[in-house]
Design brief:
Length: 297
């Protein structure tokens, strides 16, 4: 049976909103799950179900007749996805896409940043277990790298258009895995459309991947001005991250992330064999057009 009815848990969020839009465009029938006290609003084509994420009894009836669940739940909630998985299995849902959508969490076990990603890592471990016990149930994990268009505005790419300043790590030449939100939404739609090829796989996608120096060249060309560049080292970010981690300060994540992705020679971009872009038939996003749209916004 082809996947038609799709639940997006947390569909009101930064990523969820884009996933809902792309699933609707691709012709899926979308139901969004929201918490009881959520005040989020949704497009009129979407059905909304209020649920309690910690309760299989609340979730199971809301999942009856659904083919797939895409979880785009907030970072704080990723460690609590097991009841949603249990209810999906009980309701006969065929595919579960957990709230991953960042760095590849299957290759960070034993590292400092891996300690902060246990919620995501254990969720995928749990999905693997559930799949073995329930052959009709499948999962797909998606590593998208940094949210690129969202990150330009939010500051995680290192550029500030109001002050025309940038923080560039190491040489700035490292190519970093990243994805625009709409691109991730299209990847999710393509995963569900390619059910067999994507079953029980952890996939990395990314577009536009970028280097900080490429972004700098584009913003300076487009604004016609030199931006003030502060140089920083990923080794320092790593040290700060470890120091914070030793004190139980979880803001260590940002420092450890910068060390991991911007470090010269990190080699983590989603290209060639490291990328499912081609297998999913995804059209690449333009780095230049994305930056121009951000500068205009
Ligand atoms: N790669 C990147 O650069 C990057 C950046 C940010 C996030 N991420 C990852 O992407 C995924 C989605 O993140 P996001 O920023 O899109 O999420 P978000 O906007 O922070 O939250 C998504 C939705 O989750 C629900 N939610 C919020 N707090 C919750 C809680 N305590 N318990 C249950 N549900 C809660 C809310 O929906 P309702 O109010 O409607 O219930 C919210 O709209 C996460 O896995 C996150 O780690 C990646």
């Amino acid at each position: 049976m082809t996947i038609k009815n799709v639940v997006v848990a947390g569909g009101s969020g930064n990523l969820g909103n884009a996933v809902v839009k792309e699933l609707l465009k691709a012709g899926y029938k979308v139901t969004v799950f929201a918490r009881e006290d959520s005040t989020s609003t949704f497009p009129s084509e979407v059905s909304v179900r209020k649920v309690v994420y910690g309760s299989v009894e609340s979730l199971k009836p809301a999942l009856e007749g659904q083919d797939a669940v895409v979880s785009t739940l907030a970072t704080v909630a990723v460690g609590g996805q097991n009841p949603l998985i249990d209810a999906a299995v009980e309701a006969g849902v065929k595919r579960f896409i957990p709230s991953e959508f960042g760095i590849n969490t299957r290759i960070v076990e034993g590292t400092a940043i891996g300690q902060l990603l246990q919620g995501k890592i254990k969720t995928v471990d749990y999905l693997e277990e559930k799949t073995k016990a329930n052959p009709g149930f499948t999962w797909t994990g998606v590593s998208s790298g940094l949210f690129f268009d969202w990150g330009l505005a939010y500051g995680s790419i290192g550029f500030n258009k109001s002050t025309k300043t940038a923080t560039i790590y190491d040489s700035g030449n490292e190519v970093v895995q990243a994805s625009n939100l709409g691109f991730i939404g299209r990847a999710v739609a393509a995963i569900l459309a390619n059910e067999d090829k994507t079953a029980n796989k952890y996939l990395s996608i990314g577009s536009p991947n970028f280097s900080q120096n490429e972004v700098l060249a584009i913003v300076e060309r487009e604004t016609g001005e030199k931006w003030e560049v502060q140089r920083a080292s990923t080794a320092d970010e790593g040290k700060i991250g470890l120091e914070k981690l030793s004190k139980g300060d979880y803001s260590a994540f940002r420092n450890l992330l910068r060390e991991r992705i911007f470090k010269d020679g990190a080699g983590l971009s989603a290209k060639g064999d490291n990328s499912a872009n081609g297998m999913l038939g995804l059209q690449e996003e333009s780095l230049e057009d994305t930056i121009k749209a951000w500068l205009r916004s």
